């Protein structure tokens, strides 16, 4: 503690106040002390701190499916930052059950977690209302909060991502472009990306064909079925925007079953940039989400809230990127 105080230019008492999250410390002084602790890799005795202040240094993570590779990438970033700042994490898997979501929040309260990182497949106004009333600090990952709700979140611009994916297919000369989306009640990953898709084809003066928009569920099996419906239409598409990489791979599998070659006969673009995207044959053109960085930024925001630090942004939109690989080609 002496070295931290010396480097920060403050007293040992001030360092102690920062560690104990005292409101008596000015925000600028708190930042100096935290900077010094990070510089010196200083970690206080967490057991003693818990006995003294009843702080658990525990962060809860609630997610719908721990087997999903998207969430695995996000978890990597969460654990990286949590470890750096001396926090433990506990994982709650809801298996897409809203009842289990609420029970998970109650469990984390009982276990005296200091904050929650929340990932869910659907976020409506009712859920946001009880999140705002929840007593623990919470940050939402991969969902954008609208309607003036003040809940912190980290996400990408899904409308722009859907637009960029579709616009790239248009740039290759395709005009018969279909989309396999996620569930229509998923406002972010589905409806926002659909909005981007519609915006891109509208700007290109391509008439919207409702037969080209299929509601999926992010799974290989459903995508394989839906692509066969698309490719057996009287006027089938020449390109498909898939709402996720798993959806895209399922669509490729279904197209191959019908004798189509990808990308010679059909271009397919995905969304996420999961690890499998660069190993599948053909390798997958996709919109890359910064999944690990989402986890990092959300955890940093949550710890800043818990430790009463200065916070510049509570609602963060991270950039995405188009990754061009082998599954798309010029229209012929």
Please characterize this protein's 3D structure:
It is built from 12 helices and 12 strands. Helix 5 (69-84) packs parallel to helix 12. The chain has a 6-stranded parallel beta sheet, sandwiched between helices. A 6-stranded mixed beta sheet has the order 7-6-8-9-10-12, with helices on both faces. It has helices at 2-8, 12-19, 27-39, 46-53, 69-84, 98-110, 125-133, 158-171, 187-203, 220-231, 245-257, 291-306; strands spanning 58-63, 88-93, 115-118, 138-141, 153-156, 177-181, 213-215, 239-242, 267-272, 285-288, 315-318, 321-323. It has 332 residues and is an alpha/beta fold. Residues 1-53 form the HTH lacI-type domain. It comes from Anoxybacter fermentans. This is HTH lacI-type domain-containing protein. InterPro entries: HTH_LacI, Lambda_DNA-bd_dom_sf, Peripla_BP/Lac1_sug-bd_dom, Peripla_BP_I.
Query: Strand order across the biggest sheet?
Result: 2-1-3-4-5-11
**Total count of strands:** 12
What is the third-level CATH name, the topology of the largest domain? Rossmann fold
CATH C-level label of the largest domain: Alpha Beta
Profile the largest sheet. Answer: 6 strands, parallel
What is the mean pLDDT?
90
CATH architecture of the largest domain: 3-Layer(aba) Sandwich
Summarize the helix and strand pattern as letters: HHHHEHEHEHEEHEHEHEHEEHEE
Q: What distance separates the N and C termini?
A: 69 Å
- Domain count: 3
Share in β-strands = 15-25%
CATH-defined superfamily of the largest domain:
Response regulator
Indicate the radius of gyration in whole angstroms.
23 Å
Secondary structure category: alpha/beta
Shape designation: elongated
The helix tally amounts to 12
Name the helicity range: 40-55%
Low-confidence stretches: 46-53
């Amino acid at each position: 503690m002496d070295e931290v105080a010396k480097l920060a230019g403050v007293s040992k008492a001030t360092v102690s106040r920062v560690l104990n999250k005292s409101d008596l410390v000015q925000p600028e002084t708190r930042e100096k002390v935290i900077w010094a602790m990070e510089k010196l890799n200083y970690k206080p005795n967490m057991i003693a701190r818990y006995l003294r202040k009843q702080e658990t240094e525990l962060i809860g993570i609630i997610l719908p499916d721990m087997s999903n590779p998207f969430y695995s990438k996000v978890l990597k970033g969460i654990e990286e930052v949590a470890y750096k700042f001396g926090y433990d994490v506990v994982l709650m898997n809801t298996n897409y059950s809203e009842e289990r979501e609420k029970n998970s929040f109650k469990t984390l309260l009982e276990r005296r977690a200091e904050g929650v990182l929340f990932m869910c497949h659907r976020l409506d106004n009712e859920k946001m209302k009880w999140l705002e009333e929840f007593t623990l600090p919470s940050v939402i990952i991969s969902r954008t909060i609208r309607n003036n709700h003040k809940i912190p979140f980290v996400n990408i611009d899904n409308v722009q991502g859907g637009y960029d994916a579709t616009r790239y297919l248009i740039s290759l000369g395709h005009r018969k472009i279909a989309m396999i989306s996620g569930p229509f009640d998923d406002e972010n990953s589905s409806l926002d990306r659909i909005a981007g898709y519609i915006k891109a084809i509208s700007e290109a003066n391509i008439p919207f064909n409702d037969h080209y928009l299929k509601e999926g569920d992010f799974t290989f099996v459903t995508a394989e079925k839906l692509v066969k419906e698309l490719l057996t239409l009287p006027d089938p598409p020449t390109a498909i925007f898939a709402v996720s990489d798993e959806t895209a791979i399922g669509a490729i599998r279904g197209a191959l079953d019908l004798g189509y070659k990808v990308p010679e006969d059909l271009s397919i673009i995905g969304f996420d940039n999961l690890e499998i995207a660069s190993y599948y044959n053909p390798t997958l053109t996709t919109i890359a989400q910064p999944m690990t960085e989402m986890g990092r930024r959300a955890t940093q925001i949550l710890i800043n809230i818990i430790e009463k630090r200065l916070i510049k942004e509570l609602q963060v939109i991270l950039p995405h990127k188009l990754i061009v690989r082998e599954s798309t080609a010029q229209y012929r």
